[in-house]
Write a structure and sequence with these properties.
Order of helices and strands: HHHHEEEE
Domain FAS1-like dehydratase: 2-120
Structural class: alpha+beta
CATH class of the domain at 40-128: Alpha Beta
Protein name: Acyl dehydratase
InterPro entries: FAS1-like_DH_region, HadA-like, HotDog_dom_sf
Organism: Noviherbaspirillum suwonense
Strand content: 25-35%
Pfam family, one: FAS1_DH_region
Length: 130
């Protein structure tokens, strides 16, 4: 996680706490470095390419994909300088409306370079079928 990218993200979402932008403030608050704001980790998942790999593997037409749900469960802070490991799995696939809508549920466990379990990500994409 790069400090400048975290600070930019904080600015964009209006997160004004200096722990997101100022290393001294973050350290004074007990963190290793600047802290990533909530939802920042979603970008890390995007950067990993896991979502696109899943869509490609399941041969899903990207034009038919809708974002259904996203949830973050945090267990420890993510800080600038951290290296994250994301382990994703498809936990369910089901359909509704007689197969017109297919739901793909994925869960991702996130750990840092210290082996700490920092977050769990849960997402659902909806695929529209004719």
């Amino acid at each position: 996680m790069e400090k400048g990218r975290i600070a930019f993200f904080a600015k964009v979402i209006g997160a004004c706490d200096p722990i997101y932008t100022d290393e001294a403030a973050a350290r004074a608050a007990g963190y290793r470095n600047v802290v990533a704001p909530p939802t920042f980790i979603f970008g890390a998942e995007g950067d990993s390419g896991a979502r696109m790999k899943l869509i490609d593997t399941l041969k899903i037409d990207l034009g038919k994909v809708l974002h259904g749900e996203q949830r973050f469960d945090y267990h420890a802070p993510v800080c600038a300088g951290d290296t994250l490991r994301l382990e994703s799995k498809v936990s369910d696939i089901y359909d509704k409306k007689g197969g017109a809508l297919e739901f793909v549920v994925s869960d991702t466990r996130v750990t840092n370079q210290l082996g700490e379990h920092v977050a769990d990500l849960h997402s659902v994409i909806v695929v529209r079928h004719a």
